[in-house]
Specification:
The structure is a single chain. With 601 residues, this protein is mainly beta. The chain folds into three domains: 318 residues, Immunoglobulin-like, CATH 2.60.40; 142 residues, Immunoglobulin-like, CATH 2.60.40.420; 130 residues, Cupredoxins -  blue copper proteins (Immunoglobulin-like, Sandwich), CATH 2.60.40.420. The chain is built from three helices and 47 strands.
Length: 601
C-alpha cells in the first residue's frame, strides 16, 4: 500500500513518478465531497497503465481521470447528484500535452470548451438543474469525440443528475474503445464496458421479477448496437450529452437492440422472468469478437467461460424461480435444422447452408443464402433439433426470442447453475426448445464468433405468427440485409443474399407486410426507404424487434426507417393498385448501397 500511495502523493505534487494502475470503474459510487447542496470534486488527468483484458494480458499506457488522492480509473469518477446541487470541479492536467475538457456545465445546453495546459489547472462551477444522464470527456488539443482514438480515448466519465425525490436503482455503463497510441500504424483496438473487456467485465446479479434499469453512455469514437439476450426492454430516455429527453409513454416501444452513436445516451428498463446466464452486448461483430492476431495472454479458464467473445459484453446472472408457464395451445411443434458447409475452389470463405428437411420452409431468394423462413406459432412449444453436418463447431442464437438461457445459443456461458450450454460439435446435435409469447419478426443466426460463418450465410428469418394464421409469401415479404464474403471488399452488403436481388412482388388490392432484418456484421446505421418515382412512399409501421409497436406509432407515414445491426422492423403497405416501387438501402453516411425493385401486381 505504501508504494501506490507514494506515487499518488508525488503526482499530486507535480513530481515525476511511475504511472499508476488505471482501475475499472463500475459507476456505483459517487465521487467528490458533498456538503449539503454543494459537491466539490478535484479531478486529475494523468498517465497510467491499463489492463482491460485481464491480468494476463499486456498493459497499455493511457491517459485517465482520477479523483485527487485516488488512483485513476476508466471511466473517470462518477459525478452523481440531485437536481439543485451546486457542483465545483477543478481539473489538473498532469499530461505532457494540452487537454480540452468537455461536458462540465449545466444542461440542457452545449458546454463551453475548457482548455487545460500541461501542468496547469482549470476550475468550473455550475448548478445542476435538470435530471438526466450526461457525460464529460477530454481529448488532446481540439480532437472531436468521434475522432478520439489514441491514448486519450479513455478520458471520460458520467454526470448523473437525479430528481430531488431520488431515482430508482440503476446501473450505468460507459462504452469506450481503447486505442493504444504507441504505434499509430498498428493501433490496439479494445472495446471496453466500464473499463473492462469481456470476459473481465463485471458479472451483474439480479433476481427473477426485478425491475432493472440500465443507462448507457457512448463516449467512444464509434456507434454501437446494444443487444439484450432473452428479453425485450423498453427505452424510456434518449440523450446527446446536451440534453436527456424522456420518451412519452405512448411512444415507448419494446426492443432487443438499440443503436447509440458517439456522444449519445439511452436509458432502458427490463424485467427478467427466467433464471439463467444472459448477455448484454454490442451486436457489431468487431466489438464482440476476439482479435485473431492478438497474443494468447488470457487466463485459459476465463476464456473457456467467455462464450468465444471479447469486448463490449456484460453478463447478467439471474437467480430465482420462473413463474408457471401458461398452458400450451397445442402439441410441440418439432423441426430439424440441418447445417452443411460447401468449400469453394480457393479454400477461402466457405458457404453455409441451412435446411429444414421435414417441413416446407420457404426461401426468400434463390440459392442457399439466407436460410429458409422458419415459421412457428405464438404460444406453441417449439423444439428445433440442430444437426451440425460441417467440420466446424457452431452455435445458433434465437435472436429476440424469449427463451431459456440454456437454449439461447451462447456456448460456455449460457445455462443455469451447473448446466452450461455446449457448442454444437461437428457431427453433433443440439435441441433448442422455446415457446414464443409474442408474434413478430426474429432472426436465427450463428453465435459462434467466426465471421466466416455469418458472412457464409449461417443465418435466416424466424417468423412467429398468431394462432390460426399461415405464412403467405405472396403478401408476407421478408427482406434480410446481410454481409457476404467477397475477397477484397470491406463488408459488402447483400439483400436476400445478392448484390442485385430479384424483384419483390407485392399482391395488388390487399395489404402486404414487409419484414426488414439487418444481420450484417457491423452496419449499425443502415437506413431503408421505399420509394415511388424517386419520392418516398408511405407505409404503416407495425412492429420492431418482434414486438408490436404502441398504437400511437402505428400510423401511416413516410416509408423510411433506420435499421441497426440485429434489428428488425415490420411495416404494412397498402398496395391498392399495380405500380413500380423500389426498396433502397443506404449507409448511415447517406451512401447508397443496395436496392431491389418492388413490383405491385
Amino acid at each position: 500500500m505504501i508504494l501506490p500511495l507514494l506515487a499518488i502523493l508525488l503526482a499530486s505534487a507535480g513530481v515525476d513518478a511511475a504511472p499508476a494502475t488505471v482501475l475499472p470503474n463500475d459507476n456505483t459510487h459517487a465521487a467528490g465531497r458533498l456538503d449539503g447542496h454543494r459537491l466539490t470534486l478535484a479531478l486529475v488527468a494523468a498517465n497510467g497503465t491499463f489492463r482491460p483484458e485481464g491480468p494476463h494480458a499486456p498493459a497499455h499506457d493511457i491517459a485517465a481521470f482520477g479523483e485527487e488522492w485516488q488512483p485513476p480509473s476508466a471511466p473517470g469518477p462518477l459525478v452523481r447528484v440531485k437536481a439543485g446541487t451546486e457542483i465545483s470541479i477543478t481539473v489538473r492536467n498532469r499530461l505532457a500535452y494540452e487537454l480540452t475538457v468537455h461536458g462540465l456545465c449545466n444542461r440542457p445546453g452545449t458546454c463551453p470548451d475548457q482548455p487545460v495546459a500541461p501542468g496547469g489547472a482549470s476550475s468550473v462551477r455550475f448548478t445542476a438543474t435538470t435530471p438526466g444522464l450526461y457525460g464529460y470527456w477530454a481529448a488532446a488539443g481540439t480532437t472531436p469525440l468521434d475522432e478520439r482514438s489514441t491514448a486519450d480515448s479513455e478520458l471520460n466519465g458520467v454526470i448523473a443528475v437525479d430528481p430531488v425525490e431520488g431515482a430508482p436503482p440503476d446501473r450505468i455503463f460507459v462504452v469506450a474503445i481503447l486505442a493504444d497510441a504507441i504505434d499509430l500504424n498498428d493501433l490496439t483496438f479494445i472495446p471496453t464496458m466500464n473499463g473492462a473487456s469481456w470476459p473481465y467485465t463485471e458479472r451483474l446479479h439480479a433476481g427473477v421479477g426485478d425491475d432493472l434499469r440500465f443507462r448507457v453512455v457512448n463516449l467512444s469514437f464509434e456507434s454501437h448496437a446494444m443487444h439484450l439476450h432473452g428479453f425485450h426492454f423498453q427505452v424510456y430516455a434518449h440523450g446527446d450529452l446536451t440534453r436527456d429527453r424522456q420518451i412519452p409513454l405512448s411512444r415507448r416501444s419494446l426492443a432487443v437492440t438499440e443503436r447509440i452513436s458517439p456522444g449519445e445516451t439511452f436509458s432502458m428498463r427490463w424485467m427478467p422472468t427466467r433464471p439463467g446466464n444472459w448477455l448484454f452486448h454490442c451486436h457489431m461483430v468487431a466489438h464482440m469478437t476476439p482479435d485473431p492476431a492478438a497474443p494468447a495472454n488470457h487466463d485459459p479458464h476465463d476464456m473457456r467461460m467467455s462464450g468465444g467473445m471479447a469486448g463490449l459484453v456484460v453478463g447478467v446472472i439471474v437467480t430465482g424461480t420462473a413463474p408457471p408457464a401458461p398452458a400450451a395451445s397445442a402439441g410441440v411443434d418439432r423441426a430439424t435444422m440441418a447445417i452443411t458447409r460447401e468449400d469453394n475452389a480457393s479454400g477461402k470463405h466457405p458457404t453455409y447452408r441451412v435446411d429444414f428437411p421435414e417441413r416446407n420452409a420457404p426461401r426468400i431468394a434463390e440459392g442457399s443464402i439466407p436460410g429458409p423462413v422458419l415459421v412457428v406459432q405464438r404460444g406453441r412449444p417449439t423444439a428445433i433439433s440442430i444437426e451440425n453436418h460441417t467440420p466446424d463447431p457452431t452455435a445458433i442464437h434465437w435472436h429476440g426470442i424469449e427463451i431459456d438461457s440454456y437454449f439461447d445459443g451462447v456456448p460456455g456461458f449460457g445455462g443455469n447453475g451447473a448446466s452450461v450450454t455446449p457448442p454444437i460439435a461437428p457431427g453433433g446435435t443440439f435441441v433448442a426448445t422455446f415457446t414464443p409469447p409474442r408474434a413478430g419478426t426474429y432472426i436465427y443466426h450463428t453465435h459462434w464468433h467466426d465471421l466466416d460463418q455469418l458472412s457464409g450465410g449461417l443465418y435466416g428469418p424466424l417468423v412467429v405468427l398468431p394462432p390460426g394464421q399461415t405464412f403467405d409469401p405472396a403478401t408476407d415479404h421478408v427482406v434480410m440485409i446481410g454481409v457476404t464474403n467477397i475477397d477484397g471488399e470491406e463488408e459488402p452488403l447483400v439483400l436476400n443474399g445478392k448484390r442485385k436481388p430479384a424483384p419483390i412482388v407485392f399482391r395488388a388490392g390487399v395489404a402486404n407486410r414487409l419484414r426488414l432484418i439487418n444481420i450484417s456484421g457491423n452496419n449499425v446505421a443502415l437506413v431503408v426507404r421505399l420509394t415511388e418515382r424517386g419520392e418516398t412512399a408511405a407505409w404503416t409501421p407495425r412492429g420492431r424487434d418482434g414486438a408490436a409497436l404502441p398504437g400511437a406509432m402505428q400510423v401511416s407515414g413516410v416509408a423510411r426507417t433506420p435499421l441497426t445491426v440485429g434489428g428488425t422492423f415490420d411495416a404494412e403497405i397498402a398496395a391498392s393498385r399495380p405500380r413500380q416501387l423500389w426498396l433502397e438501402v443506404r449507409r448511415g453516411t447517406g451512401q447508397w448501397e443496395l436496392q431491389a425493385p418492388v413490383d405491385v401486381k
